[in-house]
């Protein structure tokens, strides 16, 4: 029984959920209060994108879905909406990076910046599709810009964390 | 490669289907989704509280760096405001009490008769696209979905989700918020300055109208700042008897507007009272003031003046009781045709510093469970 629990705890997606909970608590506390230019920074989006950058498109999509689902739990928007958007972000982050021949630190930051912009545009579009009104405004440009710059700046440590969280169980031991 | 692609395609298809399923379930109001959110909240709250404690010094540093000058300026402004409001509050309390007594005498609903639950704001939405806050009280306090939430300044929103020990409030500024409101507009008035003992006369090119005003000398002493004695009294008119009309003797009936009776009470004439017009208030996000639509272009209502108070209109189907302060008209956008003007509203409540709020345990008649 204990062995099973240990195995479960060592599973890579369990580690991702724990890291996701940590990021979610940061999102709802410190990053909710610190709003540069009035914009709430999105560390959950950063986590989803970084998973894609670290482990490729398929793992990125699944990890993004899990991270988005955690975020959906604390939002009032329809459950599964952020999960879908973050899954696309995770997938795109991994997919875009396959085109880079020799990845460098700045190419990773650039990829993180790009997928963050896409994510921040997709979110209000998805909200609008599900019936929300007044979210697709010009303010989205400012939000996307600020969030993307922040995510690009923190993409390297976040990617390192994601590498650790969703590495294979054998390597983790 | 084919197997890899198949696996990836299958994974993406599975994720897409799961998302669509979850969204559909939630939009249809599935109780399973609500229960999952509630259970997650119970698990997540301790983690969030611990993180809040750990990150508080960083937050304080950030606030110190970014808001120091604003806080100083605000502090100075608030000191002046407190000094001014101390006197006005005493007068306002007296006026409110009188108004409530009058409403109660006439069998009309008042806010004083509605139970409430005081709660504290413990968090706000981390999203950039929804304006909600979370309260630390829930269904254990009697809170239900739809109940209005206000703070000391006025209305702040309505309850949208309720759990056992917490609830979520959609703010007035949220684009999804809508509420039936009244705009209290003062009709255009003609001011006549009368020197005691003299008769004021105004002459136009065609007709001559003479207005006689009897001024009762009155000496009033007050030490309350900002309070003008009699300033809150509604204007009254007393019309002379029509020839042939007799003055009732003994017990008189109810006072009629503008009619002279033996009663010392004179009911103000309707034409002099502030006019009210209803409309729908809609939120437009934190950075923009809410607007009011569907204000009709009635000549009697006149043009809406900037600064006119906006209050909730109430009604059998409205989620909020009447006469909750919402704000004042800050801008009037006139539209052509039969469309009424579009009004921008400056909200009374300050949404940057929400702390203690009051949830009115009010349900409209249509929502109340039928008595057995």
UniProtKB/TrEMBL annotation, chain A:
One of its GO terms (biological process) is regulation of cell shape. It is a multi-pass membrane protein. It is found in: Cell membrane. Keywords: Cell membrane, Cell shape, Membrane, Transmembrane, Transmembrane helix. The chain crosses the membrane at residues 12-31, 77-97, 109-129, 141-166. Its main location: membrane. GO terms for cellular component: plasma membrane. The keyword Transmembrane helix applies. The keyword Cell membrane applies. This is Unannotated protein. It comes from freshwater metagenome.
TrEMBL record, chain B:
One of its GO terms (cellular component) is plasma membrane. Residues 203-223, 230-254 have a biased composition (Low complexity). Residues 121-197, 276-360 form the Rod shape-determining protein MreC beta-barrel core domain. One of its GO terms (biological process) is regulation of cell shape. Gene3D superfamilies: Rod shape-determining protein MreC, domain 1 (2.40.10.340). It holds the Pfam family MreC. Residues 189-271 are annotated as: Disordered. PANTHER family: CELL SHAPE-DETERMINING PROTEIN MREC. This is Unannotated protein. It comes from freshwater metagenome.
